[in-house]
Design goal:
heterodimer; A: about 450 residues; mainly beta; Rossmann fold; Neuraminidase; six-stranded mixed sheet; 5 helices; disordered N terminus; B: about 350 residues; mainly alpha; 4 helices; 3 strands
């Protein structure tokens, strides 16, 4: 994140100082505008509203036969609500339902306290759906986004998520994650009938699809960086074995089937290697395996259990869990084979580290007063904060933009996947249709 | 100085006095001479011209006794007395002789007298004639003489007059000179006095000027002091006003900050080192007249959030005081820079 900031700053300066004459002229104009040499009043705003941004998404006008299911506007509204960053105006409160700029009366929307307004129309053209939409800044009365997008009618939700992503990015300045997918494992049935299902769905839980079904446990699904493969642990052979599963073809490959434990796969940023925990040497240690050659590199050397390795944001070091201090704690190894530094100190149980993409925080499962919650530690100052408080929280996974966190928990005795804003905003839950839902993994942004 | 003055006056008077005395004496002499001359020529009756010799006995005039010294006086008086006795005797004899002589002579004289009377009468007749002629001649002469004398007198008178006039002229001139002198002196004195006066006046003027300058200086200093005091008070008042304006402005700055904070939705991509600077212009009613992004954060969403926040306020809280408004809120800069992100 730091690097990104300084880069933007460097980009900004040459732009404004590119032309010295212009700069001088601007300086003079500013002086003249000020009228005198006295310093102009400067008001600094250092805090924003601690609230979601009011956005109005007007139901899209439709022409032609629409596919069954949610309408595009509803999908977008739902997506934006889910993100926790927006406060969507209920359509019944709208004074008008414009679908294009000429119908928009900004004053009405300003009166309703709206910041942004999305209007659009969807039309059916053969088996294609065509959406034309515009996003307006209500106070500036400016269009900040306008696009026409189309998709097969069968993929109306994808079209909706695409629009959500565009709107999200236009307003927040970062990519939306509405088109990404989730992987998770459901457990249904009892005894002989128990079924473990590896499923993949949209981030809103819709369009879920079972990718693997087994009578034996399936654990720890992990997305390849390109979003095309999943690595996971399956007990189908009677012992934990790591597989890599090609989603498009359904092709599966056993990549780690060593003596003892084969667990906790994690993809390298380049997608060429996997971190994994192996006990082939008698004790659980973190290894790196080159997928092409199957070459292994042992990264940890400790008599205690070292497991759950995951790459840090730089792609050079790893976080992992170790009970070398007596109980599970999070450690960071800045360089492979280097010194491991302990990150967590709060409580006796901190496990399953999930670093964010910009190196600011590491998230993990934290035991607190007998309950399991998701916590995070700031990597610069070591400060720990609690992110979820539901209790029985496990398996955290971050959205690619780092704004949302999904984890498995229980709600009123039901097993659910819960999504929260990492900044403590709104949350939504994806309840399991039946049984339990576990080990969610948030997929990457794929374009 | 006055002493000198007086002295110069007295020395001037002395010759004048001597001149006057001299002239008086001279005039006196002239007058005497004129009188004598006049009595000689005019007042004496003409002596009858004897045309026959006549004798008359005249007793001799006693001779004046010689002057003797005091010590001889008794002896002389003795001698005198003897001489007088002898004289008296001689004189008695003489008198008898004379008486006799007289009687004889009387007789003769009577005869003679008769004769003479006749002759006399004749002679007198001739004489009368002569005298008449003479008289006529004399009268003529007298007339001529009188004329001459008159002429002379006239001449003298004229002379005198001339002299007098001369004198008068001289005197006048003298007087004039004196007066001239006096005038000159007076003039000089006046001039001197005038000069002194001028000098005095000059000095006075200088003094007054100096005084005036000093006064002016004092006045100026006082004025400057007053001015400084006034400025100080004004500055103080301005400072007070300024302070008031500042405190008022701070109040409204706080209000604006609060409103904008509530109206600002920093995008999730915002980081603490992003800063967007906007210059805004307000109307005195608090309405937004214009907004300009003067410094981009480099993040469009961030810039938009700032612009949106600024534009979202329908009315800015601004002071009623127009000065404060103009000074601080007509145009100002708002900086959006998150310090604590959600």
């Amino acid at each position: 994140m730091k690097r990104i900031k300084s880069m933007t700053a460097k980009r900004a300066y040459p732009r404004s100082y590119a032309n010295p004459v212009l700069t001088l002229a601007v300086a003079f104009l500013m002086l003249a505008a000020t009228g005198s040499a006295r310093a102009e009043l400067l008001i600094r705003i250092t805090e924003g509203a601690n609230a979601a941004i009011p956005v109005a998404v007007v139901p899209f006008a439709e022409s032609g036969t629409m596919p069954a299911g949610d309408k595009i506007g509803s999908i977008v509204r739902s997506d934006l609500t889910m993100s926790g960053q927006f406060n969507l105006l209920a359509p019944e409160k709208m004074l008008s339902l414009p679908s294009q700029r000429s119908d928009v009366y900004f004053r009405d929307w300003r009166m309703l306290g709206q910041r942004y307004l999305l209007v659009g129309q969807v039309s059916r053209e053969g088996d294609q759906l065509r959406a034309r939409y515009e996003l307006f800044d209500v106070n500036r009365e400016q269009r900040i986004l306008g696009e026409t997008a189309s998709a097969p009618a069968s993929r109306a939700r994808s079209l909706g998520h695409h629009i959500s992503d565009k709107v999200y990015e236009a307003i927040t300045g970062e990519p939306g994650v509405f088109s990404t997918r989730l992987a998770y494992v459901t457990v249904a049935g009892q005894g002989e009938d128990i079924r473990y299902r590896l499923q993949v769905s949209d981030v809103d839980g819709k369009r879920s699809k079972v990718r693997l079904e087994s009578g034996e446990p399936i654990l720890s699904p992990a997305w390849s960086p390109d979003g095309k493969k999943l690595a996971y642990v399956s007990f189908e052979t009677g012992k934990p074995v790591i597989f890599v599963h090609e989603l498009a073809t359904g092709e599966r490959r056993k990549v780690a089937d060593f003596r003892g434990l084969n667990s906790a796969p994690a993809w390298s940023p380049d997608g060429k290697s996997l971190l994994m925990t192996l006990s082939r040497d008698g004790n659980a240690e973190v290894y790196k395996m080159e997928l092409a050659s199957g070459d292994l590199t042992r990264l940890t050397h400790h008599w205690a259990i070292d497991t759950e390795g995951s790459w840090d944001h730089s792609g050079r070091g790893i976080f992992f869990t170790s009970d070398r201090s007596g109980g599970p704690q999070i450690y960071h190894m800045e360089r492979l084979g280097g010194e491991a530094r302990r990150i967590t100190f709060g409580g006796r149980y901190n496990a399953r580290p999930r670093p964010d993409a910009n190196g600011e925080y590491v998230y993990y499962v934290h035991q607190r007063e007998g309950e399991f919650v998701i916590a995070r530690t700031h990597l610069d100052n070591g400060q720990e904060s609690i992110v979820t408080r539901t209790g029985a929280d496990e398996s955290p996974s971050l959205s690619p933009n780092g704004r949302l966190l999904i984890y498995a928990t229980e709600q009123d005795g039901d097993s659910v996947l819960s999504v929260v804003s990492t900044e403590g905003g709104a949350a939504y839950s994806l309840p399991a249709a039946e049984g339990e839902v576990r080990d969610p993994a948030w997929g990457p942004i794929t374009r | 100085m006055t002493g000198h003055e007086r002295e110069s006056i007295s020395t001037g008077t002395a010759p004048w006095l001597s001149g006057v005395a001299f002239s008086v004496i001279l005039h006196g002499l002239i007058a005497v001479l004129a009188l004598v001359g006049w009595s000689w020529s005019g007042s004496t009756p003409p002596e009858p011209q004897p045309n026959a010799i006549s004798a008359r006995l005249v007793s001799p005039e006693p001779k004046p006794s010689p002057v003797v010294e005091e010590q001889d006086r008794e002896e002389q008086r003795q001698k005198e007395r003897e001489r007088q006795k002898r004289e008296e005797e001689r004189q008695e004899a003489e008198r008898q002789r004379q008486q006799e002589e007289q009687a004889r002579r009387e007789a003769e004289r009577q005869a003679e007298a008769q004769k003479q009377r006749e002759a006399e009468r004749q002679r007198q007749e001739a004489q009368a004639k002569e005298r008449a002629e003479q008289k006529a001649r004399e009268e003529e002469a007298a007339r001529k003489k009188a004329e001459a004398e008159a002429k002379e007198r006239e001449r003298r008178r004229q002379e005198e007059e001339r002299k007098r006039q001369e004198e008068a002229r001289r005197k006048a001139e003298e007087e004039k000179r004196r007066q001239e002198e006096q005038r000159r002196k007076e003039e000089a004195e006046r001039k001197r006095q005038a000069e002194e006066e001028a000098e005095r006046k000059r000095r006075e003027a200088e003094r007054r000027l100096r005084e005036q300058q000093l006064e002016a200086l004092a006045e100026k200093q006082e004025q400057e002091a007053r001015e400084a005091e006034r400025r100080r008070r004004e500055a103080e008042a301005a400072r007070a006003r300024e302070a008031q304006m500042l405190s008022e402005s701070q109040k409204y700055q706080g209000l604006i900050r609060e409103r904008l904070s509530q109206a600002w939705y920093p995008p999730s991509s915002a980081t603490e080192d992003m800063t967007a600077r906007l210059q805004i212009t307000l109307l005195p009613t608090g309405e937004l007249a214009s907004v300009k992004l003067v410094n981009s954060s480099g993040n469009t969403a961030f810039d938009n959030s700032a612009l949106g926040a600024v534009r979202s306020l329908s009315r800015y809280p601004v002071p009623d005081n127009r000065d404060t408004f103009e000074r601080y809120f007509r145009q100002f800069t708002i900086e959006f820079n998150p310090e604590r992100l959600r």
